[in-house]
Structures are given as structure tokens and as C-alpha cells.
Amino acid sequence: MQEVLLVTRITTKTIGLLAVPMLGSALVAYRAVPDQQQALNITVPQGFAVEQVLSPADAQSIVALTFDNQGRMVLGKEFGNVVTLIPNGSGGFEQRIFTEEVHTSQGLYFDGSDLIFDGVGPQGVGLYRVTDDNGDARGERVELIELSTGTIGDHGPHAPFYGPDGHMYWTHGNFSSTYSEPSPLSPVRIYKEASLLERPDPRGFGSQYEAGPGALFMRKALPSKSAGNTPDAGAAGNQEWELFAHGMRNQYDGAFNLMGELFTFDSDMEWDRDLPWYRGTALFHVVPGADFGYREGTGKHPWYYPDVLPPLEDLGRGSPTGVTMLQTYNYPAEYWDYMLSSDWSRGRVVGTRLVKSGATYQPAAPSTNFMYGEPLNVTDLEVGPDGNLYFTLGGRSTGGGVYRLVYRGNDAMQRPAANTPIDRVLTMIQPRSPFSRELARTTKAQMGGNWERQLDLVVRNAGATPERRVRAMELLQVFGPELDEADLVALRADPSWEVRAASTYYLGLKTSETAQRELVARLKDNDPFVVRRAAEALVRTGVHPIRNAPIDPVADVFPLLASPDRFVQHAGRTLLKEINPNRWKAAAMTATGQTAVNALIAYIDAMESPDVWDMTQIVRRDLELLQANPSGAELMGVLRLIQRTILESNGVTNFPAGASAPGNMQNRQATGLQGGAQPRPAGQAGPGQGGPGAQQQTQPPLVQIGTLLLSRFPSADSMLNREIARTVAALETPGATAKIAAELSNPRNGREQQIHYAWVLSFMRSGWDATTTNQMTAWLEKVYGEQWRGGASFSNAMNMIRDGFLDNVPPEQYTTLSQRIQTASQPRVAAAPAQPAAAPAGGAAPAPAFVPPTSESDEEIYESLVFRPDFAGSPAGGAAAYVKAACASCHTFGPIGTEFGPDLTTVNQRFGRRDLVRAIMFPNEQVSDLYQAHVITRTNGTTVTGIINSETPSTITVGISGGAGITIPKTEIRSRVETPVSVMPHGLMRLLTGAEQRNLIALLQAGPAAIPDSARTRLGR
Question: What is the DSSP letter of 417?
Fold first, then answer.
């Protein structure tokens, strides 16, 4: 259940400081005292309330939030400095600038009293350590840790934070990385575009990053002051970063759960909405070596590909920012280790309770809007030392602020008893936060040798809770002394999967042969979570193709490739790629089913210089796997293997399907085979001829593959159909053009499926005849005639498809077809709402002039008006928009308008902005019985749509837009039908510019009093 709570604005003078004794130190948290001056509406779960800690005027736009090792709040100002809120002794505080040498930060983290953050510094954009030796929140020295290739902004370097292994993790958007190459022992060593029929983004955005891995996480063993070490940032690039995971678009942040698993909230490419390659925002479980498939432009890998990992949940449109895990006792138990993900553009914080599912996690139920506001431009969120969640507002020069979430119910968790120093550190809130790390460091110093002895006892105590034992292992690893290898080995038989998984994780930090042998044994654990971690840990021990490791790839790793768990399969492939392929290639060539697909994809990934011998063997094996008649998921796996084979064959000398320019996204003809370079034997059937068995014995394997795939098209699986179409188009399989073109008019195919087929057809250079060219042309005429819309890239994508098609049609048809398409694609004016012949006396204003429609989709207009944090409409300008959008033709609003539909004079007392916009944008969602429309068909064939005002035995009077009534003799009525469609026309907002749209909504929210006198005189009744 959700409720709307008043959020009180707190002035600087009302903010006090509250000691937090549960942390065992003098840490402080900010206390808000409501003054009830103003209020905002934010929806939160029942029992919760939101308090505003820092006003927009004091905060300005904030993009990053953290707490330092003393528990003081630290804020990263947009285009400004990092400031610490310092108590001033009189109940207020100062915003103390930490340093002026590095600014415009996108992520903050404290290591002891030192601030680690990215921003613009003395040596450029990068990750810096600013040392503060005396803890006064004023940095003395600035050291560069690593330069970034990206710029500070939406798609550049983002949040840094320490992980459960004691390493620094650094988040990068899709336009950012480091200058130096990642470590050769990285979980990700090789990344490829790996998409057939690639093209750049229809609007060119991101095309220069075609060879990159997308957004990524990097990891580095960075000495930590808070762990008792001596930091030595040194010069940029003096220590190698590992590429931990990639294939995201632009995640801003990440967070570890208590088991040490990393999660993030990734963004979508919103311009691609309603196109077949669109992927929504998503929650990801970020495991070592992960590839989530994001590539620029149309090259995105669908999540059903077996060589990428799927999301935990697709959350649709949004703009992800800060992420955290609630590891605090202030809230009810259902929110323990609960994931919160900020969505800047949708005004929400998404809440997700994750539960273990095999080797990964899944939401216990669909994620919910844990917090929601209109707008609520959340940029970052962290739990403070008082155990409450704090979050910041700002970004893109919008209004800022700092808020705190408190719980006022009586069922909050009870913090476990903490009577000893060890109890205190094992029950710390947010155990990886700077203030909890400080508590762990000081506790270790106070305990001396008892620190290790008592934590060891907890680790070995089978009667302790798994969480307590896992926490003890992390404390020993991070703060020292490191976990003993023998103790970790001894935990292999522990009954708790959590303990086995944690000990497996930390064994991965050892490099001994003993540790590797133990991890190999754990590949056979009965829990897939432990199996996955064992494979990941083996990679981390330094397994590499040039090193010998005590692993039998076939006996030990191949069983993982056949697992029903995709995360286990992924871990197995990642490990297999790190073992010398000479040890397992032969087995891969004879494997069957899912094992063969995964093993051969791993081999393709591992190949650095494929030769004709390799490619010949693989393509023959692809054909054999296809001839085994796989179905469903197995066929999808084989299809993906075939695609990867085609792509890898590019440029291979003497291979019959070789090509000179593999995967060049800038070339619209680029495919794995450059449109099918494979020659056909003399006398072979041409386009549109032959069948599955025609001359197969004389055809090269890839030709046979295309023929077999086409024989299975179309299937009942729409996604399988997409991949078959993509593949036979790359192979230029005879007959493919005709079969795919026929699907454009198949009623079972929705718009996205049709667009995919048309996009595929735009690459086809053969098979075009009078039938197929007419099918494609008719489809384009339909798209333009019906004015299909989507995201910002939609129209360019349609034009890209059109141009590709026209490039390939027979020359003698080009002029006729291009003229047909050009005629259909001519810009159309927006149809004005129906108007009466003359406006009633003193009533409606003149009908609006025809204007070109906006290029934005309904959804984009809606989201801009509802969720845009910098919404700035002018009520004074809204009166003109009210008339221009024809609102005045049907609705009274104070002194203006016509009484036909509902009176809008007091609409602001009944509806918030979201409901107002939705009612205008989507009038058919809710139609009142009072305004139920009828369609009257007259005997002369004309129709009248309106509301029946009155009826006599001989006539019907119908009210129509503008307030006029039409009386129709019943003898002239052929039929009348009640319709669920509103009399209010759809698309009125398209008559307005963006500024006019905002002005209209601002006027409706403000009420008729905001109508300027000049408009009252001109428009009033």
C-alpha cells in the first residue's frame, strides 16, 4: 500500500546534529526539525515519511552523495565543487569545499579521511585521491589514480566504490574507459561487436564507439587507508585495471549485496523506442566477465542470445542514476538487503527484493515504485550513519535538495545485540560504507591479536548464522590478516551454501596450485551458485592460455556448458576461454547440443587470428548441428553460433565466404559476408528457386545452412523468426527475399516484427521481383501514410530502411517505386478537431490553423510533461495554447471556452499534473458515462460522431465538438452505435510546440485566476 506524505522543507537553521552511539564512535547524522512552511508530495510505502534536510536554495543541483569516515554528509555539486556539511556549533553548518583542484564529480567515495572521486582535475578527467591528513574536510594533496577517456557528463566516468574483496570498482558509461589496456588477466579480455547486418545509430549517436565494449565496470587492487594500508596512487597507468564486466549502456552506479554480489541499473537508448533493437532500462546481476550485449546503433545483442547474460528485470523507459542496498535496521525486515534504484527522468526510486535463484537472483515480485514524485529528480542515494536513507536531487541544472527517509511504524527491525567489539563490527549497517569501514579499522586496532582469533572462531562456527560467518570472512580479507588458505579449503563441505560460496570467492584471491585444485573440486558442488563462483574464482587465480593450470577442460568445465542455468554456462565459457584451446578444441568439435554451442562460441571468442582450417571445421560443425534438427532454445543457440561463425570468417584468407570489410558499421551494406560473398557452384539455382534438398551435396556448407534455415521460416516463435531472417539475409539465401517480404503483411506480426523484417530486407541485394518490391513498397506506404511514430530515431530508421531497399531494387523499377514512396512520405498537416460551421455567440474561438505535427511520439510528450524535473511552463501563456489546442471549443475554463465537455475551471483541485496530462494525451482511457459518444451513420453515407443531447420519437439531437447541436430526423439514420472512443480528439498536444504544451498544463494547474487580463478580454464570454 502506498500513501502520500507531506515532505517538509527544512531551513538551514532547523538542521541539527544527532549522535549515533550504535556506531561506537562520535559519528553524526543530520536531524531535520519540520517547520511546516511548505510541502511537496512524495508517495512512499505506508509507515514511511520523507523529511527534507537541505533546501533547493542551499543545495543547488547535486549529482553525487556520500558520507565520510566521520559520518558527515558530502555532496558533489553539478558543475561545481565537492562540499562537506560541517557543524558550526550553533545548530547549523557550513558547506566546506573539500578541494578546488578537482571539480564536477560524478561519483564520491571516502577511503578513511581521503576522498576518491572522478572529475576534472589538474591532469584532466580522471579518478583522483585527495588526501586529508587531519580530517578537517579540506584536502591537502591531489594525486591522480587513473585518467579517463570520457568526459565528465552523462556518458562518462561515474561512481567509484570498494568491494567485498577490498578492491576499488569504477563505473564507466558507454563513452568512457581508461587509456591503458586492461590487464591480460581481466575477467573480460576480448570483446567484439558480433552482430550481423550492423549499421550505425540512425541519428549517428555513438557511432564512433562501434569497437568499444559499451559501458563497463573496472576493478583494481587499490591500497586502502581505511583498511590500514598506505595508499600510493602514483602516476596514471602504473597499475593495471581489470575489465570486470561490459555490455551495458550507461549505468551510473552499482551496489554489492551482503553476499558480495554486484548489481546495477542500466539505462536504455530511449531514441530507439518502438524499434526492434530497443532494450529498456534493466536491473543486472553483474558477475565477472559479464557481457550484457549493448552495442551502439542497431548492433545491440538481444538478451535471448546465449552468449550474453539476461537482465533480472526489464523496467522500460527511464534514466538510471544512484543505486544502493538497504543494509540498515531502521526499516522492516522485508527491506533488509533491499535494492533501491533511482530513475531520474521518471521521478521514482525503484524497490526490488532479490531472492536467490540458482546461480543468480530474481525479484521476489515485480519491482515497485518505492518512492514516487512529480517530479522527483533523484541523482544519488546512500544510507547515513543514523541508519536512514538519504537522497539528493539535481542534474541537468534542475533544482536540488537533500531528503531523508524515516520509518514511523512499530515493526522496524531490532538491531542484534552488540555487547562485544566483534559483535559491533559484525552487525554494522552498510558494512562497506566509509563510516563502517572506519569503525572496523579502529576496532581492529583496539583488539590487537584478538581481532583475528575471534573472527576465525566465527568463520568456523557452524552454529552461527551464515550472514555472520560471511561478514567475518570479508572483514579478515579486507582489513587483514588475509584469510588462511587452509581454513578456506576446509569449508568445502560446510552445510551452508553461503559459507561455501564466500570461501570459494576468497580462494579466487589466492594464486597457488592448491587453491586452483580446490576450486576445480568445487565445480562439482551441488549448488549452482557455488559452481558459478568456483569457475569465476579460477579465472581470478590467474588461469590463462599461456599458463598451465590443474584443470581438465573437458571433464571439469564442459559439464558447466550443459547446465540449465545461464549464469553457470556463462561462467563455464569464461573459464574455458582462459584455458589453452589446444586442450579442448577437438572435444568442442565433437560435442553436441548446448555443450557444442557454448564450447564453439568460447573457441570463436578465444581465436585471435582465425585461419581457413579453423573456419572450415567450425562451419561444417555448424551444419551438422543444424542437420540434427534442433528446436526451440537449442535452435536459437545453433543460430547464434552460425552468426558468430559468419562474422569470424570475415577476412580469412582462402575461406570461400571471406570478405574484405568485416562488421564495418559505417557501411550500410556491412554484414558478416558483405551481402553474401560466397560464390555458388555453376548451374546452381538462382534467387527464388530450389528447396531444402536442392543440390545440397554440391553446395558449400554455408549455402546449405541458409537453405535449411529458410525451410524453417516462419516458425511459431517470433524471436526465432527474427534471427533466421537476419541470418539468411546475411547469407543471401535464395528465396529468402520472397519469404521475408511476405511476412510484412502477415496479421500476426506486430509493428516491431514488421520493422525488423523490413530492416533485414533493406540488406537484400537479390531476389527482388515485381511481387517482392510491391510488398516492400506497400509496407513503406503504410508506415508513412499511417504516420507510425516512436522514439527520436524512429523516422530516421524508416528512412534508412527505405534508402537501403531502393539501393537494391532492379534499376528498371527504381523510378516508379521511389516516386510511390516519396509521395507517401510527404509531410502531412495535423487534422484539426471537428468544428461547427460557426462558433456559437460569445462562445468558441476560431478553429486552429493546420500546423505540422510534432515529431515526438505521444509517450515522449507525456513523459516530458510529467517527469521532466525542469518543467517550466508559463500560466500566462497557457490561454493562447488553450485555444490553439481546441480546448476552448469544448470546455469552459473560468471566463473562456465553450460548455460542451466537462468544465475545467476547478480541474486543478481534482487532478495532479500526471492525471491532467494523461487525460489530454489519452482521452480514450476513461470515458465518463455522461459523455458517452455515438456514431450516427446517415442514409446518405455520412457519419456524425457526438453525444446524444436529446431524443424525440422522430429526431435525435447530437452535440458535437464546439458546442453546436445537430438535429437529425430518424428517417435519415441508417444506424447508430455507441462507441468507447471519446469525442475528444486524440493528438491535440501535437498542435502545440513544447513550450506551448508546458504553458497549457501550467495554466490548468494554476487555475483561471492565472489567465491574463488581455486574454480575458479577447477570449472571454
Answer: P
C-alpha grid cell for residue 347? 521521478
Q: What is the C-alpha separation between 1003 and 1005, in angstroms, rounded?
A: 5
User: Burial, 16: exposed, middle or buried (Cβ in 10 Å; 0-12, 13-18, 19+)?
Assistant: middle
Amino acid at 440: A
Q: Which three cell numbers mark 891? A: 470546455
Grid cell listed for 434 = 566509509
What is the C-alpha to C-alpha distance for residues 722 and 735, in angstroms, rounded to an integer?
16
d(CA 551, CA 518): 11
Task: Give, to the nearest 10 degrees, the angle between helix 450-460 and helix 434-447.
Answer: 110
Cβ-based neighbour number of residue 24 at 10 Å:
16
* In contact, 294 and 214? CB cutoff 8 Å: yes
> Cell for 502?
564466500
Give the integer Cα–Cα distance in Å for 331 and 342.
19
Residue carrying the nine cell digits 585527495: 130
* pTM assigned to the model: 0.83
Q: Are 675 and 659 in contact (CB under 8 A)?
A: no
Q: Are 324 and 159 within 8 A, CB to CB?
A: no
Provide block-wise average pLDDT over 10 residues at a time, the chain (1021 residues).
40 37 45 46 93 90 97 96 89 89 96 96 96 95 94 93 97 93 91 82 79 90 89 62 96 98 96 93 98 93 96 94 98 98 93 98 97 90 98 89 95 93 97 97 96 96 97 97 94 97 98 96 98 98 92 98 98 97 96 97 90 91 96 93 90 57 33 33 34 55 94 96 95 95 96 97 94 98 90 89 94 95 74 37 32 59 75 82 80 75 67 77 70 84 81 82 75 86 76 85 84 70 50
CB burial of 345-384 (b: ≥16 within 10 Å; e: otherwise) equals: bbbbbbbbbbebbbbbbebeeebbbbbbbbbbbbbbbbbb
Alpha carbon 351 to chain centroid distance? 15
Integer CA distances (angstroms), 738 to 44, 712, 729, 814, in order: 55, 14, 11, 18
Sequence-ordered list of residues with C-beta below 8 angstroms from that of 629, at least 6 positions apart, any chain: none
Residues 6+ apart with CB under 8 A from 274: 751, 752, 788, 789, 790, 791, 794, 857
In this structure, the strands spanning 28-32 and 15-19 are: antiparallel
Distance CA 138, CA 95 (A): 11
Q: Beta partners for 87?
A: 93
Closest to 308 measured CA to CA, from 245, 259, 219: 245
